[in-house]
Amino acid sequence: MKTALNFRLALLTLALFVGQSLAYSLNPQPARWEKLGTRKVNYGLDRDEIMVTGYEGRFTALKFRVEKGGINMHKVAIHYGNGDVQEIETRNNIPAGGESRLINLPGNRRIIRKVVFWYDTKNYAGQKATVELWGRH
What we know:
alpha+beta
């Protein structure tokens, strides 16, 4: 009788553990976005860079947000913690209040040291644009 009770208790514990594991795999934690830096960009054709410090962590994707004025993003160079550099032709027109497309990073989760971006502005709004870099954990 005691053995049957222990067996049932062990079976119930196993069922609860499997149920929790299955629930987590079907409903994982939502992606967490973190602002990595901001640059107020110049008029015309230029390049800027945003330094990313090590305490921000590892990332799976990046995106840019633009405020106050639109920009044409031409190219992005992502400098990783291991020394690799990934260049991406973006050719993305981002209006004021808009976002770039999602830039998925190769590999699992990457440490980023800096992001360099080439752009031009048209100054339609009469204000310098502010570019924010966001990383997804």
